[in-house]
Specification:
Strands 10, 28, 32, 33, 34, 35, 36 and 37 form an eight-stranded mixed sheet that branches. A five-stranded mixed sheet has the order 12-11-15-13-14, covered by helices on one side. Strand 25 and strand 26 form a beta hairpin. It is α+β, with helices and mostly antiparallel strands. It is elongated and about 120 Å long.
Length: about 725
């Protein structure tokens, strides 16, 4: 650093870098072979270098582990008090300890905390888990400079790897006080602007970025070859998996791939032609759903199509990636659907069929129809408010969900017939009492299939002369006669205006009461849809409770949004099985079927094929819906020892893992705090890393509902041919 023209950026001087200043004393420089400390010389008004005899050890800060590469750790962890001991003793070349009765006693290495720079607990938690990964400790404490790939266009010119390596060495340096990772954060923000500033972030998102960035910076492949994917051609899975892994390794070869990457099998099946597609893809970590994220609660309003009952809201629980037929099945049980009935599921602008996937943004309604109407054309009444003629013109205001019924098989000829059907559907919505059944004492009105409207004093308020001349079209109509007709409705012929068409937003024709229905009714085929726009004047809005036409809001049942329900404990194995369960793809992930030549909502099934030595498991605790953002505090029972995944992989590899680190999140969705639990393997003891504070913790206390990311290392048996690095789980020999 003796070039005065060089800028700090050119010299790669970052925040928190330590700079050694050497001063000539009597024309000579201090001995380069000795480590020196600085103290003030008030007489000379200059800095003097005072040599200190070092305590020899096997650890070298600048050169990594020397000699046999062993890292000295205390065999008595009880001697460790904290990183903030006032009597701490620090020797840069290798001594780590504190003074007790004039004797220097050693303390464990790797117990250095990280200062919180302002909402950086997420970074501290993720870093502590990574810097205590056995293979990474061994790798970065050695000379790794020959592994850095500065020319990888997907990498960060090796700077992320160097920054992480420097940080890891500082955290494993003996006797250090809590360290402020400002330099690392500056470099991180340079390549990942989303982590700049001092906002709270997700530790798992940072872990994903670090693992991928370290891989690219340490990729041993300097020039990636072009690899052409071959067709499946009904080849064995073993051959396909091996070929895909070799192709992946030809372009991606680093310490991260060696220890952290596995492979899973993905099977897609087309729902139309049953075409099967199998691929084998690498993974860096497993993101497992919690059981409470596998289901969703829907509030669906059910309408009757004959006016027999008022609209009623039902709450059902279905799979999160469920289809319409699943919602219909759950709703049928909730409303005690009869054997001769069926349910039609709709959203405001369309009718949903069984195979369709229910999306998060769908606002669902349901309609109860008889099974005998399956082949009949459907009448879809779209209600909108009639605006008075005014300038400027107001936009159309729709009133809630459309009402649906079926077209009668016969005697459905005039506009009056259509009026009668619509009036009957509206009966449960009337604010004033009506008589919907025929008065047996009024034979004349019974024959006409009409009912008189009662006046306030209980007398019949309408005489025969008030009834319009529409009886001919009503008489003999089974559906209208079954529905019953209210004279109040027939009397007020101008209360509603109907416009019919074959398309939801297409052209419409006026339906007049005493005239034949438009041609679209006579030419309607089975399962056809006839859209009828109904203009509601102010008088109608006052007589009917139009609020009942509004759709139910998802998840807004009593207490659901306000009261957080405690979830029952689940096992990590059940989360894994839920991850591997077959499910349909979402609308945004449509698969292009090579057989159909169209995008399809295929079903997808994942299977584990190859497992890495370091298995990172992410528990998906944060859930998002249309109305709610929530954090799940479900207690996940995860094994600390002997996580056995042998039955989930087809090969005969030993797949038993031990836990060595946990990233925890405490608090809610909007805020919280991250910590880490880490096991020092040679000490066989767990420690809590809460930013700068480090303290021992019992193994029984590390299982909490705050566990967010789990770190497992594979346990090798004595017959394994796997490499055995110092300080890793692979040193543990199982008989």
């Amino acid at each position: 650093m003796n070039d005065p023209k060089q800028t700090l950026e050119d010299a790669d001087i970052q925040m928190d870098h330590e700079v050694l200043l050497e001063v000539q004393v009597d024309g000579s420089w201090p001995d380069e072979g000795q480590k020196c400390s600085l103290e003030s010389n008030s007489k000379e008004n200059e800095l003097a270098l005072v040599p200190v005899a070092p305590v020899r050890s096997s650890f070298s800060v600048d050169g990594g582990p020397s000699g046999n590469r062993n890292i000295t750790r205390s065999s008595s962890p009880d001697n460790f008090l904290s990183n903030t001991l006032n009597s701490s003793y620090d020797d840069r070349e290798g001594g780590a300890g504190y003074f007790a009765g004039g004797v220097v006693k050693s303390v464990p290495l790797g117990l250095t905390g990280l200062q919180n720079l302002g909402n950086t607990c997420f970074m501290n938690s993720a870093l502590q888990c990574l810097v205590h990964t056995p293979e990474l400790v061994d790798f970065f404490l050695n000379d790794y400079t020959h592994e850095i790939n500065t020319n990888n266009p997907l990498g960060m010119e090796g700077e992320l790897a160097m920054a992480f390596g420097e940080l890891l060495r500082k955290l494993w340096e003996p006797g250090r006080q809590p360290f402020a990772p400002r330099g690392f954060k500056v470099r991180l923000a340079r390549f990942a602007p989303q982590f700049s500033g001092y906002n709270q972030h997700d530790s798992q998102e940072l872990l994903a970025f670090l693992l991928d960035g370290l891989h690219e910076d340490l990729n041993r492949v300097k020039l990636k070859p072009y690899v052409e994917s071959k067709d499946e051609d009904d080849r064995p899975d073993e051959e396909l998996a091996r070929e895909n892994w070799e192709n992946h390794k030809a372009r991606n070869d680093s310490i991260i791939v060696d220890i952290c990457q596995g492979q899973y099998k993905s099977t897609l099946v087309c729902p139309v032609c049953s075409k099967v597609s199998i691929t084998f893809d690498p993974f860096m970590y497993l993101s497992l759903p919690l059981p409470s994220t596998l289901t969703r609660t829907l509030s669906v309003k059910l309408f009757s199509t004959d006016g027999a009952t008022a609209p009623m809201t039902y709450t059902v629980t279905v799979a999160k990636q469920s289809r319409c037929k699943d919602v219909i099945l759950a709703l049928s049980k909730a409303c005690s659907l009869g054997e001769d009935e069926r349910i039609l599921l709709t959203e405001p602008f369309s009718i949903l069929d069984g195979p369709s996937l229910v999306r998060e943004e769908d606002s669902l309604t349901a309609h109860r129809l008889p099974k005998s109407s399956e082949k009949a054309p459907l009448l879809i009444f779209v209600n909108k408010r009639t605006e008075e003629d005014s300038l400027p013109k107001k936009p159309v205001r729709y009133l809630g969900s459309p009402l649906i019924t079926w077209v009668p098989e016969e005697n459905f000829r005039t506009g009056a017939d259509l009026y009668h059907v619509f009036e009957r559907i509206l009966q449960p919505l009337r604010k004033t009492p009506t008589v919907s059944s025929v008065n047996v004492e009024d034979a004349k009105h019974e024959e006409n299939g009409l009912c008189n409207h009662l006046s306030e004093d209980g007398e019949m308020g309408i005489n025969d002369n008030d009834i319009p001349n529409v009886n001919a079209s009503v008489e003999g109509n089974p559906q209208v006669k079954a529905f019953g007709v209210c004279n109040h409705f027939l009397k007020d012929q101008k209360l509603f205006q109907f416009y019919a068409g074959e398309e939801r937003f297409g052209a419409k024709v006026l339906v007049e009461m005493n005239k034949e229905l438009p041609d679209i009714f006579s030419r309607a085929r089975s399962n056809a849809h006839i859209y009828v726009e109904v203009n509601w004047p102010q008088q109608a809005l006052e007589e009917y409770d139009v609020k009942q036409l509004e759709t139910a809001v998802e998840g807004m049942r009593t207490g659901f949004a306000l009261k957080k329900q405690r979830q029952e404990a689940v096992s990590l194995y059940s989360c894994l099985e839920a991850f591997l369960k077959e499910e349909p793809l979402g609308p945004e992930d449509m698969w292009y079927c090579p057989s159909c030549k169209e995008h399809r909502q295929a079903s997808k099934k994942l299977d584990l094929w190859r497992l890495p030595d370091i298995l990172v498991v992410h528990l998906k605790r944060f859930s998002y819906s249309r109305y709610l953002k929530n954090k799940l505090d479900t207690f996940v029972e995860f094994p600390v020892h002997d996580l056995d995944l042998c039955k989930y992989i087809p090969q005969n590899d030993k797949a038993v893992y031990d836990l060595y680190a946990i990233s925890n999140h405490y608090g809610s969705m909007g805020g919280g705090h991250y910590t880490a639990y880490v096991k020092l393997l040679e000490e066989n003891r767990w420690y809590s890393f809460d930013d700068s504070h480090v303290s021992p913790v019992s193994e029984t206390d590390i299982m909490t509902p705050a566990a967010y990311v789990l770190f497992y290392c594979r346990v090798r048996n004595e017959n394994s041919n796997g490499y055995l690095n110092h300080g890793s789980c692979q040193n543990r020999v199982r008989n």
